[in-house]
């Protein structure tokens, strides 16, 4: 009887493995071909090459098993903590409030307590210098397995920074931009103490908005104090009930929040998949609103320039063609791509050589390529006039701090070449070279890299939960600061390390980093790729000419 | 030998099939068939059925016309042109080219152009640059942030504090981190817009009670209790919260905190307190409304404030017990998914805290000035002062409010005219701005008068006279 049970168990196990691999089979990355070359070749002026190599089956199985083991141990540890066998570090509710409804469900925090806590030292690493190409980390130790940290008082100096969003190297404390910001601080102070519509509209803000509009090539623009809030406060002002929002699968949390707060209907299309988007557009216009079949008031497509977890670039020429055909509006969030793509640094529109007037709403942030903080929206004058009167941020939120605005003005002028130096052009060139070099070397080494070959965001696949922690720690031992991401920011088996290339990285720094990555890759067996290195001339060619 | 071994196992397996109970075999068979079906079926689409031909679909697509992206804004819309401030918005402010005395910026403690604060901000700029280039999780945590969090927690005498990079996003991210779909939140009608957005994002059930009316709140709580008894299982997992402000920005009065704490323990509801206007203003040491009423700070579950008023920096913070605050480090949207506060602004906030701690007399001086202003503004024909005598941001509303929103709205241009006249006479006041269509309970139109510590008696007299004359001229 026992042997019968064991056989049945094996059958069950086998069927579950098959189901898991089927689920994996249908996940988006399997359906995308390797080395996907753009169809509709006529719209693209240069090759559009993106890689999303398949997850090897054995790796997928092992990853699920890894999570399974961690979950079992998690339950065990929770049991031990409940029975006071193990010391409990988790903060507890007050005695006086013990009979209140619990603030958190135990299950919500299961992942945090048992999986995240083990490798928590890879995140929130405090730094004590400029977040430039090299940075100084505050050394911290933990004596109780990451529940609490102590600062030893020492500083780890000159760690190569592969994690900060510093694409053009404007995170610096010397130079023209810093001097201008210092002058603004001396003159204006740090805060503003009022909203745009009341007494917080400074001449600096007006100057900034005119400059941003000129930089982007649009009629007018408006600047806000926080990039996240730019999305969450302005999308509700633009759409409302009776409108439809078509949002990419992998959009950022701020876009999702803005779409939800607006009250419009939201439909999601597969990541960067133009057939899926076209189908949704056709269905929406033909069938109208659900149940009543009234026509939609307007349709807004939400896409990002570069998707920071995938490294992919939006297929902008195709999206614009679709938008024109079906009379929808396009909201382009260029948080990562402004300053980082395009020959003039003007973002993904510049990269594809398109007309900025085709994009209805161009949104972006100043945090990444300009070394400051805040966001902007640019477009036609009617749009910006409407936002000036109806945006939540203009009425209720404090305006941007003056030294921050000055930093943006100075760095933007530098990128445009208006400060009298060649610095902007040199940095753009350097960034592009660094990106190509870094991606090519990682491919040659045999790692699985996702994304477009021109994007300075380079996700490298790790898959297994233990490797997330191991990679982060091993790289820090070799004095390189990297960013690792796992669930819930990514699908559960697709954890990755993400490198952000900067124009401030020199070739030597990149080589040091690459040597270290290769070493750690061999140590942890991360070189999963089974393709031979594609040479950039042959299979990156356009197929059909439409 | 291997073959016979395998054969033997095979025989065993076949035997197992024969010996297995029928239902078990059927179940396994269904599982296998289901897997096969999954393997070969296409994904299920909802709107597959359509009785329209392709030609009809093309016609529909041709005919559909969307609304314009944004409605046209008329050229003389009152909010289109902003007042332009040239230079710093300090005590003597240059608005639209004219130098005025500032009665409109929330610079209560005068820290905006304080030299010490500027020196610290500059030192920080020279060390760290301007931006942080990343969110808190990815090398965006600076030692300055950690220091500011520690200092805030120590100042407020709580266990922990967490900083946000934008004042509006603070309470708007904190509420949805705790209150989810199905939970219940009791909110004052006069709650500010950021609280309303936080509530909307949380998707909880929201119940409004009349402004500062504890009986109305108790009535709602009793009703909820009756509901709970009908369904105790659901009640055991439904969280309840009360969200109030310390000093309301829309009505400039204080919430009755001791009664709220009593209600908290009686009905087992948690309190979230928004102290943007009262932090650095109320209380002997500026710790806010808990110090003002001498309430134990641990009785309040979460205190949230922005650093853009008294502290004269940018950003916001939440403080409370670690049990509550630590949760936001992974689920506060404005914290996890947004770049952190620029270090120079954090350094400015730390220095402001230093000044507040070293010199607690400024709070007494500020309260004196508030009382003075409150008294001077009494007796203006046509306008009444709304707010407590110790509130630093007062409202001047129409004395004879008609009670209906439309007629009040028609008086709007007159409020504006009063403000313009004052600006002409070198007193900078502003109309309190709201988004008419978005507010749940739109406050009556009013003129905002802000008291700062830098205003002298002479200037206050001048301002009161100026407003009186403008009101006489326009509102008669």
From TrEMBL, chain A:
Record's CDD domains? KBL_like (cd06454)
GO BP terms in the entry: ceramide biosynthetic process; sphingosine biosynthetic process
Determine if Metal-binding is one of this entry's keywords: no
Stored InterPro entries: Aminotrans_II_pyridoxalP_BS, Aminotransferase_I/II_large, AON_synthase_class-II, PyrdxlP-dep_Trfase, PyrdxlP-dep_Trfase_major, PyrdxlP-dep_Trfase_small
Q: What is this protein called?
A: serine C-palmitoyltransferase
| Record pathway | Lipid metabolism; sphingolipid metabolism; Sphingolipid metabolism
Cofactor or coenzyme needed: pyridoxal 5'-phosphate
Q: Tell me the enzyme class.
A: transferase
One Pfam assignment: Aminotran_1_2
Q: Which family does it belong to?
A: Belongs to the class-II pyridoxal-phosphate-dependent aminotransferase family.
EC numbers listed for it are 2.3.1.50
Membrane topology note: Single-pass membrane protein
**GO-annotated cellular components:** endoplasmic reticulum membrane; serine palmitoyltransferase complex
Give the keywords, sorted: Acyltransferase, Endoplasmic reticulum, Lipid metabolism, Membrane, Pyridoxal phosphate, Sphingolipid metabolism, Transferase, Transmembrane, Transmembrane helix
Q: A Gene Ontology molecular-function term?
A: serine C-palmitoyltransferase activity
Q: Which residues form the Aminotransferase class I/classII large domain?
A: 157-517
Q: Which domain of life is it from?
A: Eukaryota
Q: What is the lineage of its organism?
A: Eukaryota, Metazoa, Chordata, Craniata, Vertebrata
Q: Any idea where this protein resides?
A: Endoplasmic reticulum membrane
TrEMBL record, chain B:
List, for all copies, the residue spans of the domain called Aminotransferase class I/classII large.
99-463
| InterPro entries linked to this entry | Aminotransferase_I/II_large, AON_synthase_class-II, PyrdxlP-dep_Trfase, PyrdxlP-dep_Trfase_major, PyrdxlP-dep_Trfase_small
**One BP annotation, GO:** sphingosine biosynthetic process
* EC top class named in words: transferase
Cofactor dependence is on:
pyridoxal 5'-phosphate
Listed GO molecular functions?
pyridoxal phosphate binding; serine C-palmitoyltransferase activity
Q: What is its EC number?
A: 2.3.1.50
- A Gene Ontology term for the protein's cellular component: membrane
| UniProt pathway annotation | Sphingolipid metabolism; Lipid metabolism; sphingolipid metabolism
**Record-linked Pfam families:** Aminotran_1_2 (PF00155)
Keyword flag Magnesium: no
- Superkingdom of the source species: Eukaryota
Similarity remark: Belongs to the class-II pyridoxal-phosphate-dependent aminotransferase family.
Q: What does this protein do?
A: Component of the serine palmitoyltransferase multisubunit enzyme (SPT) that catalyzes the initial and rate-limiting step in sphingolipid biosynthesis by condensing L-serine and activated acyl-CoA (most commonly palmitoyl-CoA) to form long-chain bases. The SPT complex is also composed of SPTLC2 or SPTLC3 and SPTSSA or SPTSSB. Within this complex, the heterodimer with SPTLC2 or SPTLC3 forms the catalytic core. The composition of the serine palmitoyltransferase (SPT) complex determines the substrate preference.
- Identification of the protein by name: Serine palmitoyltransferase 1
Give the source species. Denticeps clupeoides
Organism lineage string = Eukaryota, Metazoa, Chordata, Craniata, Vertebrata
- Please state the gene responsible for encoding this protein: SPTLC1
């Amino acid at each position: 009887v026992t042997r019968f049970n064991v056989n049945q168990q094996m059958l069950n196990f086998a069927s579950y493995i098959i189901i898991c691999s089927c689920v994996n089979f249908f996940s988006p990355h399997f359906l995308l071909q390797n080395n996907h070359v753009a169809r509709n070749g006529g719209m693209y002026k240069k090759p559009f090459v993106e890689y999303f190599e398949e997850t090897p089956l054995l790796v997928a199985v092992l990853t699920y098993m890894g999570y399974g083991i961690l979950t079992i141990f998690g339950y065990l540890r929770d049991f031990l903590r409940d029975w006071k066998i193990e010391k409990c570090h988790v903060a507890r509710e007050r005695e006086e409030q013990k009979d209140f409804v619990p603030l958190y469900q135990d299950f919500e925090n299961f992942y945090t307590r048992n999986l995240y806590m083990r490798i928590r030292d890879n995140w929130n690493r405090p730094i004590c210098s400029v977040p430039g190409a090299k940075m100084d980390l505050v050394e911290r130790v933990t004596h109780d397995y990451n529940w609490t940290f102590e600062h030893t008082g020492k500083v780890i100096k000159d760690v190569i920074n592969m994690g900060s969003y510093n694409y053009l190297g404007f995170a610096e404390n010397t130079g023209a931009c810093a001097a201008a910001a210092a002058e603004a601080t001396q003159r204006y102070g740090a805060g503003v103490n009022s909203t745009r519509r009341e007494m917080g509209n400074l001449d600096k803000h007006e100057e900034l908005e005119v400059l941003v509009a000129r930089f982007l090539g649009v009629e007018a623009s408006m600047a806000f104090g926080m990039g996240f809030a730019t999305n969450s406060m302005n999308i509700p002002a633009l759409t409302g009930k009776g409108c439809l929002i078509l949002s990419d699968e992998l959009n950022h949390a701020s876009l999702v929040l803005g779409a939800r707060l607006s009250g419009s209907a939201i439909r999601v299309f597969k990541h960067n998949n133009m057939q899926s988007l076209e189908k949704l557009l056709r269905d929406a216009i033909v069938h109208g609103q659900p149940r009543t079949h009234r026509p939609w008031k307007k349709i807004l497509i939400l896409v990002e320039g570069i998707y920071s977890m995938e490294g992919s670039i939006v297929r902008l020429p195709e999206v614009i063609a679709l938008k024109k055909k079906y009379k929808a509006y396009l909201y382009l969030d260029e948080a990562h791509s402004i300053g980082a793509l395009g020959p003039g640094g003007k973002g993904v529109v510049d990269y594809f050589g398109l007309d900025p007037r085709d994009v209805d709403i161009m949104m972006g942030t100043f945090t990444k390529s300009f070394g400051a903080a805040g966001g902007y929206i640019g477009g036609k004058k009617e749009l910006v006039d409407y936002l000036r009167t109806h945006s939540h941020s203009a009425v209720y939120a404090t305006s941007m701090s003056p030294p921050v605005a000055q930093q943006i003005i100075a760095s933007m002028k530098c990128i445009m070449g208006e400060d009298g130096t060649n610095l902007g052009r040199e940095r753009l060139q350097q960034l592009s070279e660094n990106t190509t070099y870094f991606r090519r070397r990682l491919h040659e080494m045999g790692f699985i890299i996702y994304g477009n070959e021109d994007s300075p965001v380079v996700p490298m696949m790790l898959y297994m939960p233990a490797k997330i922690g191991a990679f982060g720690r091993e790289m820090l031992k070799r004095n390189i600061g990297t960013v690792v991401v796992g669930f819930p920011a990514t699908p559960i088996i697709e954890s990755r390390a993400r490198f952000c290339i900067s124009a401030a990285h020199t070739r030597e720094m990149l080589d040091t980093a690459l040597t270290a990555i290769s070493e750690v890759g061999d140590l942890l067996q991360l070189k999963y790729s089974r393709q031979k290195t594609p040479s950039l001339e042959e299979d990156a060619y356009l197929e059909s000419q439409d | 030998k291997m073959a016979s071994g395998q054969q033997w196992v095979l025989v065993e397996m076949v035997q197992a099939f024969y010996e297995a109970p029928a239902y078990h075999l059927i179940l396994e068979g269904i599982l296998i068939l289901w897997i096969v079906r999954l393997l070969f079926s296409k994904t299920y689409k909802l709107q597959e059925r359509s009785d329209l031909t392709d030609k009809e679909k093309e016609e529909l697509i041709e005919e559909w016309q969307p609304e314009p992206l944004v409605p046209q804004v008329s050229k003389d819309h009152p909010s289109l042109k902003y007042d332009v401030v040239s230079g710093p918005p300090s005590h003597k402010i240059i608005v639209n080219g004219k130098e005025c005395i500032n009665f409109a910026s929330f610079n209560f403690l005068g820290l905006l152009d304080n030299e010490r604060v500027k020196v610290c901000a500059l030192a920080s700029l020279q060390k760290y640059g301007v931006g942080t280039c990343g969110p808190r999780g990815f090398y965006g945590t600076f030692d300055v942030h950690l220091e500011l969090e520690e200092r805030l927690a120590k100042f407020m005498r709580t266990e922990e504090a967490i900083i946000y990079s934008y004042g509006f996003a603070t309470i708007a991210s904190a509420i949805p981190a705790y209150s989810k779909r199905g939970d219940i939140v009791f909110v004052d009608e006069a709650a500010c817009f950021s609280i309303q957005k936080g509530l909307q994002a949380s998707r909880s059930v929201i119940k409004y009670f009349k402004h500062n009316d504890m009986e109305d709140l108790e009535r709602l709580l009793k009703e909820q209790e009756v509901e709970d008894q009908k369904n105790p299982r659901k009640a055991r997992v439904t969280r309840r919260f009360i969200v109030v402000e310390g000093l309301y920005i829309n009505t400039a009065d204080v919430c009755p905190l001791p009664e709220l704490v009593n209600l908290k323990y009686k009905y087992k509801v948690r309190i979230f307190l928004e102290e943007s206007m009262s932090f650095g203003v109320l209380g002997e040491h500026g710790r806010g409304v808990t110090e003002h009423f001498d309430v134990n700070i641990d009785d309040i579950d979460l205190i949230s404030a922005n650093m853009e008023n008294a502290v004269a920096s940018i950003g916001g913070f939440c403080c409370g017990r670690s049990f509550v605050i630590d949760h936001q480090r992974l689920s506060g949207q404005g914290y996890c998914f947004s770049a952190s506060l620029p270090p120079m602004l954090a350094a400015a906030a730390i220095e402001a805290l230093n000044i507040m701690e070293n010199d607690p007399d400024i709070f007494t001086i500020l309260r004196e000035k508030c009382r003075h202003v409150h008294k001077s503004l009494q007796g203006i024909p046509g306008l009444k002062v709304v707010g407590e005598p110790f509130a630093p941001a007062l409202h001047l509303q129409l004395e004879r409010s008609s009670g209906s929103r439309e007629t009040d709205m028609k008086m709007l241009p007159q409020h504006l005219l009063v403000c313009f006249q004052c600006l002409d006479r070198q007193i900078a006041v502003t109309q309190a701005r709201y988004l008419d269509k978005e507010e749940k309970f739109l406050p009556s139109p009013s003129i905002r008068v802000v008291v700062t510590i830098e205003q002298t008696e002479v200037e206050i007299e001048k301002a009161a006279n100026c407003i009186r004359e403008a009101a006489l001229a326009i509102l008669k």
